[in-house]
């Protein structure tokens, strides 16, 4: 294993001369011509018999798939540190993801992956890139390795909001092969064209963001550098005429438990979904097994990393008959409360001066401005706490955009409005750096 | 001596008669070559997402209504986790929280009169694959053709008391499900399988004894033997303390006539059920509910009664027909096409059944539509088709049913194209009769001399010459008149 | 969660942790108790469960059979196969 593996496989077919954008695919996205390892020894070298829908759509739109991008095992860790192919650090030695590093150091324009637990959102926030987790159901998950289906979405990381939008335009659309895929008319709302038509028609989700509410309860748990970055972003937005206020304390309390509830839901689904990786049908098989139980147990024990094992065990425990009501069922109800609280915050702001715009929630994407490999070695379970900033969007299926180091969450189908706001945030930060 | 009562509940798994599997588009047909009806989804590869088959819901509702259940107007799918080589995703998608049908009831006949067996619930789920044990390599081979074939599981309350009642219950289920075309419900083919939950208690007690479950019983005879064996084992344990009864899953070895404890891990039995977020709830509105309700078949008892009182069939004929939904459909279609009920019944019970038997098919597999049989009967009755060629035509219809084109609408045209119709050319008929008489003057003279049996070889010779293609009544009359002329 | 319970949980999930992994996992589980207590304090008595974040109903497909996949391709990545079957140690 080489240090800083960015691609685990590169496209054997070279880039066509007329290719539009150059895109990497996160390693939970299946491709028939390149292996899909899901960051795991269990699937190292696995080749799908069919491509993910998003891979097809990228190619249909004239974009070039450059290769398969290294990720943490099953894509739910903090910053890709659990990858079988090794973690990735940036030029200054800080922990980053292969996707963020590809955008920082190569000509790759964008990385399309599966956002299970906010990994690339954190990486983009740390690297000053743009990340979008679209409204759940607008981009088909067909052909992605299922981990936490109730909340995960295809995601996009790019250097600019404009590029992210071009990719989203290519990806969004209904798919009969994904039972959670929204009707075409709704998917189209997150594309530039569909959004602009809706704006002309006066649809609220297509109005520009005119009001941001700071999720103060969560923001205050970040370090001072992060809070200063958030304050700078708020100043930039105010300068653009965006109103700024705080979310209600009751909302803050719910946002703070979103992570706990999401960890329960995510681990339970992960446990169930990776059950299928048992060494029998494909992938890693332990040698010289005498019984089927030995084959299962040794294959999984030898192939899965420590964080995955813990997540599997935790996910199994929260579903145990004795725990189901107080854990899993409880988490499903908390998901409702969190989603309702966010919806109330997003809906209840229309004062006269802001009537023309919609509301978004703004918060950091992680607690610090940089992390080292030591941080995750000292606390391998860091992600289960630090995902508190990304859990609200994951658990509610709402769109979220990271730009300029901060995160905005909006109403369903506000993706384009958020990306346009993200453009402002990104410019403000880069202007601030230059100043 | 204490009298004991056996308390039995059944969980009956029934494979649904759909074209495709429940969550992927693979063909539903597990008899094929191993692993030829499989795709990445049903062999547990990553990436595919489940999309439920509408017809599975239709058949689940149909079964629920046939068994007098309440239909849950919102029904959902859940995941059940366990490891076994025949379960490629290591979870089964089933219904745990909101099954399609609940609170039903099936009435069976017992020596003490009719008895209601309550149905707790019916849920829809996917079947598992098949394991083949290879004794040369001492390995197990895995076939996923049956994986994700749609099933319903019919869970009864513990209302059954002996093997006779269990048999009556299973036969009643089989009849109702076949009549509603929910399933072929054939235990010998594995499209119907039963888990037997059994406990024993002193007669008159309200408390249930320790329950054991015998899984995947594949014939009614085996179930009878297992119930007898297991009842005796329980009583022996209670009376003589031969062993401590524990709640467990047991296998049944029909060759040895014994049940045996299946090694289960201490931790097994907690399946970690939770709702599948990839499969949206199924909401059954009034329109859908009413449509399924309207599609339910007339029950066999009602048909039998109607065939006798309104249609005028004998009780024998009516009994024979109502054994099979396909027989009833064919019969009613033939009558609607103009056939006399008695003729239609005879053709089905005698000729169709004969062909089915010869081809190793069951009565439910009768492939001939009533309209086609009605046309065939009319051709015979009108003298356009000999009875023997009618049977040949019936075979042709069976053959064609297995082709892509299927059975044509116009059976007369088919008979004509096949060259089976009687010749309508009386000149040709007369020429044949004349030639036959000329070729055998001695027999002809014997007939004229009063030996009536002498007609038979002459008639046979004519039929041979005509290759059977004539109205036998017309031939007979012509032959006699020609003989008497000369 | 004690070591015996954890061992059963491992078995149920076909895993076998090292003593060190067990220690770490037990510590993780112990920390989750506080999480669960925090959730318990939130009143969810009359709150509807949210399984689906963008609810739809009756997402069903028609009962049409598709062409099968190639068995050879499906089996090509099997660690062990024989005569068109996946092959595993004998299951009794």
List keywords for this structure.
heterotrimer, A: 435 residues, alpha/beta, Amidase signature (AS) enzymes, 2 domains, eleven-stranded mixed β-sheet, two-stranded antiparallel sheet, 16 helices, 13 strands, 14% strand, globular, B: 486 residues, alpha+beta, Arc Repressor Mutant, subunit A, 3 domains, nine-stranded mixed β-sheet, three-stranded antiparallel β-sheet, 15 helices, 17 strands, 39% helix, elongated
What is this structure, in a nutshell?
Chain B has 486 residues and is α+β, with helices and mostly antiparallel strands. In chain B, 39% of the residues lie in helices and 20% in strands.
Give structural notes.
The complex is a heterotrimer of chains A (435), B (486) and C (92). Chain A is α/β, with parallel strands linked by helices. Helices cover 42% and strands 14% of the residues of chain A. In chain A, β2 (22-26), α1 (53-60) and β3 form a beta-alpha-beta unit. By secondary structure, chain B is α+β, with helices and mostly antiparallel strands. Chain B has three domains: 4-286, no CATH class; 298-417, no CATH class; 426-485, Arc Repressor Mutant, subunit A (Orthogonal Bundle). In chain B, α3 (220-240) links the parallel β13 (212-217) and β14. The N and C termini of chain B lie far apart (93 Å). Chain C is mainly alpha-helical and 92 residues long. Chain C has a domain at 3-40. Chain C has three helices and three strands; from the N terminus they run ααβαββ. The mean pLDDT of chain C is 95. The interface between A and C is large, with 66 and 48 residues. β10 of chain B pairs antiparallel with β3 of chain C, so a sheet runs across the interface.
